[in-house]
Amino acid sequence: MNGTRSIRYGLAHVGLAVTLLLLGACRLSDHSEGANELSSEDITFTTSGHEQVDPDKLPMITFDSLRRDMGMIVQGAKVSKRFLFTNTGGSPLVITNVHSVCGCTVGKDWPKQPIAPGEGGSIEVVFDSEGRSGRQEKTVTVVTNATPPSTVLALTGQVIAPPGTPAVE
Length: 169
Description:
The protein is mainly β. The protein has one helix and eight strands; from the N terminus they run αββββββββ. The protein has a single domain (27-160), classed as Immunoglobulins (Immunoglobulin-like, Sandwich), CATH 2.60.40. A four-stranded antiparallel beta sheet has the order 1-3-6-5, with no helix packed on it. The protein has a four-stranded mixed beta sheet with strand order 2-8-7-4, with no helix packed on it. The chain is elongated.
């Protein structure tokens, strides 16, 4: 009985250690967003929320596509794709964050300053296929001052691994 309890206790600690290791390895963004801090003067708030809002005066982010196909890639390769967007709203658009729940996919290189109506830019998303195999669909969430406040972008593709390597989702 004590042997079984010791094994369970040991497995619980191993599971906790693996979980902490995975969480510590997860990068939510490229952490370069501090490079160009925004001030309150950079953001226009059109209303307090208690008034009627003219939707044409709000910022709106419109992407050329919400998905990019990576095709077939060899395990270990890093793939970078750009998502183009335009501010189709009536006031400046501010991208506050681009993040992922998986450390293998990172949002990078997005505009840190307000984007005027009619102007645009791009967001780079990088997928690291190290340790992955099989069909992959990885996402990043773009957080803005637009309505809706977040947009999900996806990378899809097939990672080809050496024979005998198990698929990792």
